[in-house]
Amino acid sequence: MITLIIYLLIGAGLFVFLLALALRKGAPVEGCGQEFVEARQALQTLRSGLLPADLIEGIFGRGDLEYVTAETVPEIHRMFLTERKRISLIWASRVRLEIRNLMHFHLGYSRFQGKMSLNTEVRLAIDFLVLVLACRALQLVLFARGPYGAPAIVGVAAGAAARVCSISEKSLAFLNPLGGATLPNDTGSGGATIQL
Description:
Helix content is about 75%, strand content about 0%. The chain is mainly alpha-helical. The chain has one domain. Helix 2 (about 30-50) packs antiparallel against helix 5. About 20% of the residues are buried.
């Protein structure tokens, strides 16, 4: 009798679970356009605003520090380190924010795109995990030791962010313009031209 009750409970549990899966609402289709646009903006911010090698070198490179140390008084040296620490913390938090935006997009809306291979999805999940952890570790190290205390973590974070951007760019490729092509204007003179 007890085994029958156990089997009935397991069956009822499976039924409730399957019912919950069937009734589960996915991402709303009407809102997904905004999510695509936000993901594309996050990708552009990362690619052109936060991850260029010259910007990273400018923030975390030791050239400015060596110059300020050699050519200025200790008070200016301290001010320089304080400002560079503030800038590096802002950089790390912005990278983390934009990566979280891309991660949110991939978690909720990637099913509307072409299918990713399992290998790509696993690599992307690992890269997101490494990147979120690296950004958090970088923020802690930057806060404790300043912008020159963690060059290896900066490299790991920038490399993982570049990989995430590459995969995300492929996922969002349909939002890119088609080589600047225009649709023919058959509305007469003064009509609108649609730029693709």
